[in-house]
Each structure stands twice: as C-alpha cells, then as structure tokens.
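Just scan my protein:

——
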Amino acid sequence: MSTKYRIVSSIIFLLLLLSIGLSVLNYYIILQSTKKQLEYSDIPLSTTNIYNEIQKNLIEPNLVSSVMAQDTFLKEWLIHEEHDVESITEYLKSIRKKYGLLTVFLASDKTNKYYTSKGLVEEMSRKRERNLWYYKFKDNNLENEINIDYNKYADNNLIMFINHKIFNANQKMIGAVGVGIKVFYINEMLKQARKTYKLNVYFINEKGRVVLKEEAFNSFHSTRHNSELNDALINPTGGTLKHKYNSQEYITHSKYIPELDLYLIVEAKVSDFTSDVISTFYINLIISLLITTLILLVVLRMVSRNNEKLEHLAQHDTLTSLMNRRSFNDALEQLILRNQRKEQKNSIIFLDIDDFKRVNDTKGHQIGDKVLVRVSKILKETLRQTDLVARWGGEEFIVLCIDSEISDAELIAENIRVKIQNDKELQELLTHELTASFGVTKIAKGESSLELIKRVDKALYKAKEEGKNRIVLSV
C-alpha cells in the first residue's frame, strides 16, 4: 500500500473512531444521567404530583366520610332521632351536593336500616348478599375501609366506597357512614397519570396486595408477587426499588397514604424514558457520520491535490513547469526499451541558450529567469503534443521528438532557433537578440540513454565551437 493510501486510511480510521466514540460516550453519559434523574428527581416529583391529584380525587371523599363519622348530629340522630327520616335525608343530600359525590349513605346498627340522599332505602339483613359488606365491616377491627362493589341504588355501577364506623361515647359501634365514587373516575385518573407522566400507578395494602389499579393495566406487582418488592416498598417513609421483569428494567417508588391506609405505587419502565435518548443517539451518530464523511471528502480532496502537487514537483521544473531531468530520463528509458524490441523513428534535440551567463551577470537573475520561462513557452508552442520537452539543467533544454527522422527533428530545431532569435518579448527583456545552439541526433537501436545523451551533447558542443546560433547533427 502506498504512503498516500496509508495516510488516508489512517485519517479515515481515526475520524470514524473519534466520531463513533464520541457518540457512544455522549449516549452513555446522557443515558446514565436520564436514569439518575428518573430515579432521584422525576419519579419522586411525579409521585408528589400524583399524590396531589389523589388527594383531590380520593382523600377529600375519605375526609368527608371521616368527618361525618365524628359528626355529633349523626350520633345524636342515630341514638335518639332515627324516626326523623326527613332530616337525615336532607343532611345526606347536602353532603352529596356540596362535595359532588356519587352517593352518600348511613347505616344504623340498631335498626339495620340503610339511608341515602334519597331517604330510607332498605332494611339490611345478613341473609342478603348485597348487605354482607356491612356485617363484615362491623365484625372486623378496622375503623374504616375502602371497598369496591356494585350498588343497585347507584345505577348498578362499580363504586368505590369509603366507609367509617360511628361510635358512641362508650366506643360502641352504632352505625356506619360512607361515600361512594365511581371507579370510572379513578380509572381515568390513573390512565391520565400513565399518559401524562408515562408512569403506571396503583395501590397496594400492607400485605402487598393490589387493591386498586387501572382496568387495562397489569402491574408488575400484581402479575408476579415479589417479596423483595414488598420489603422495599411497604414502608411508612416510602421506598424506591430498581428491578427487572421480562428483560425490562423498572424503577418503582412508593408513598404511604395514611388517610387511605394504602401505599401509592408509581412504577416506571426505564425504556419509556430512554427511548428518546436512544433515538437521539442514532440521530447524533448519523449526523456525526455525515459530518465525518464530509470532512473525509475534504481531507481526501486536499490529500489528492497535495499529492498531485508533490508528483508535479517531483516530475517538473519549478521555474518553467517543463519536465525535469529525472522524469525526462524515465520517459527516455521507456522509449529506448520499446525501441530495442522494435526500431522506431525517434530523435533528440539538445539546446543551450547562448551567452546566458552574461545575461545573468548584466541583467540579473530575475531577468534571467524570465528569459528561461519565455524560452520554455516558445518550446511548448512550437513542439507537437506528442513530443516531450524538459529543462535539462541551467539554460539547457532537451526535446524528444516522437516518430521523427533526424531530418524532421532538424526542421523542428531550426523553427525553434528562429523563433527564439526573433522573439519580441525576449528582445524587450534583453534589448538585443537571444540565440541558442542545437545538437540533434537519432535514437539508434541498442543504444543506451547515456550513450545517446553523450552523442547529442557532443553535437551541441560542436555547435558552440562553430560560432553558436546553429544546429549540428550527430548521425
């Protein structure tokens, strides 16, 4: 592999390595930053926001139910005035209207009667399945509970009931009061949390059982019971746990809600939050590769142009832009090799500017250089495109006349000699005519380049001896 291609390959490799390396490093840094922000900032903040929404939608009804259970009016009514159905109906109706609740109820333990904002609804019985909730609630040790059930007195909708026991002064249960909220609204709230925050939200009790979740959502916790989750999340101060399920990474955060005696669980699938990072990585990588490609094209162009310049400098004379001695010799050697296989009609013209040293001495090297440039231009204008011309050295020039007999070369040399002597531009530079001496010879079969140059050089030397400004043939 040439030096040029080694350099280009190295540049390509380094640029690609730099481009891809920086993109991967940037992706890794952003990914880790996103995960940390998700764990320590986004999820806790979102949990607080969701808690505030829950407080608005769930905690307020729970507080209403709790306050009703402590209301002295209700206690007095249950103990002494249960016959006054109208007053309790108005009371329940006002509570329902004030807080925009689906239903408000009161159950009397003494009479087993069930009241709503519509008045006396029924007399409850342990034998009636729809009334069993009350007796189960009465028999347990809890002062309040949340349960979800269908209610025939609320259009048979699935309702979440928040129930509180009512106690007299002796802490004996005298009834139960509660409010009902449509599960539809709760489901919408949880769905909105998922859509807005990309978070799955559900509620678990102290035993780790999911008691409330979005209808269409199967939580990790509910689909696969995990004691590690329970230990980390069921904590009054809340907790955070990173875990995997089905090859997906999750971050789960919990917050205890004492008003409901439930744990709010906020579950984030990490890929939902890093998908943009991955997309950004690929976009950045593509942009980076495009920029790298553009840079490579520019570098390749520069290397190619510089290489062309170097090759030109290596093969051409810097002053006249003609071939230099080395490149001419290479071309001559190739021609001689071909001539050995099959003799061809090729000739050499060797010329030297007469008295050029005097030009430099009297006019200066700057004028001397201009003379050389002008002579080289005359040579290029006079010669055929197939001919080769080079600056041999100093004020010497050599011409390879392709497919030319020595007589043809002599005519070419004479044409050059006349043009140099009569050139107006040279005369203006020097204020006198410039002349040149020529040696001309034919390339003989089996002759080396050294022998050829030696013969034509002798012919040139003879032209100088005979008075200059003339052509001498070496046959």
